[in-house]
Fold this protein.
Amino acid sequence: MQEDILINWSPQETRVAVVENGVLQELHVERSLERGLMSNVYLGKVARVLPGMQSAFIDIGLERAAFLHVADVWHPPAEGETVSMARSSAAQIPIEKQVFEGQSLMVQVIKDPIGTKGARLSTQISIAGRMLVFLPQDDHIGVSQKIPQAQRDALRQHLQTLVGDEGGGFILRTNGEDATEQELADDVAYLRKAWKRIREGATRLPPKSLLHQDLSLLQRVLRDLSSDHTQFIKVDSLEQFAVMTAFCQEFMPATGQKLQHYKGERPIFDLYAIDEEIAKALGRRVELKSGGYLIVDQTEALTTVDVNTGGYVGARNFDDTIFKTNLEAAQAIARQLRLRNLGGIIIVDFIDMVPQEHRAAVLTELRKQLARDHVKTMCGEFSQLGLVEMTRKRTRESLAHMLCEPCPVCSGKGIVKTARSVAYDVFREILREARQFNPKEFRVVASPKVIELLLDEESQHLAGLSEFIGKPVSLQSESAMGQEQYDIVLL
């Protein structure tokens, strides 16, 4: 597998495309105006302590003061105490005895500002790496609970040996389950360097300073997306190329050798028709090379994928046709999940297969393709109804939610009433208002298609309605209105 990473940078937006064997597999987008504050570390200044709320407002240099609750004031566990016990006992100490107005305090954002509420803070600092999370104020060595219990003790012991006696706690993340010793050692070194820089900043910078910001998308590309399979990482901005090169020199020299500055005249995303692939990824229908197709529907609760043979008729028999379509669909589904960044529960409705060996082969292919995903996935067996249930960890908003918004005409339903249905709604509304009011005339303001229908096919019914209520009904076309929108004006 050959993997290339293309980066299109502009002051307002960064787009990263992961291309495998010439085919787009993943797209990551970050916009400067929408970048959150989560995980940022500040040197805050206590602006006000509120004993009645057991909280304090901390000035971290934002428009609104941030909020620190007593439960989020960190105290290291005493000997024999667990982290939860230490947190519980610390919360029993009144906040006015833990912080005071004017005090400088190192804090980390654990919840972004929402509406009129400021950011929520914690005094426990945690720094995320590629494989590990560093807890510099603690000495706890932990392993993600998503890793099977049978492996946790061995991994914990191995990690304890690796980090030594330099202090600080570490938690092994789920994607570090199969990491090599060198990868873990590189992550430990990176996290310790980051903490050293934070401590140095806290001693020399004034209050309300930003001490540490979670990595930008460009830096996360180097930390999380680059792998041994990556041939090159091309970026079309000389300025950002310099920033990424400096980051690599300090933290990951081997990755820096793959960095390239793209100088071509064509836009970098045109090399692999990335923008065309993005447009396709926002649609419901995904065409397969054989002539079959997928229908992808994303809902609030889950995502469904329906496989259809379409125009593919096969060459031998019906079972072979279905098998080949499902096999191709398995490859396409794994790609679409990555490209669209679909997370949560996913239900795949393959075309029904009778031979058991066909089912097993399709499931094996699906799992093989999912194994290439950077995000953790779990895939079940075929159910009694022929469905495959799977889950994919949510890491960020899906591509559709990031780039799109609900249609203002249909409000996200995907369908609108027909012009005739709206015309009959208009008739009922006129009858309803005629019973309550006594205007000289009723004027219907609606979309051109509805007005055209009322003037043509429904003109006889409109005339009968006007005669029944004893009032004239005039029509006015409004091109700015959606098909379901209309107004009844009383004149």
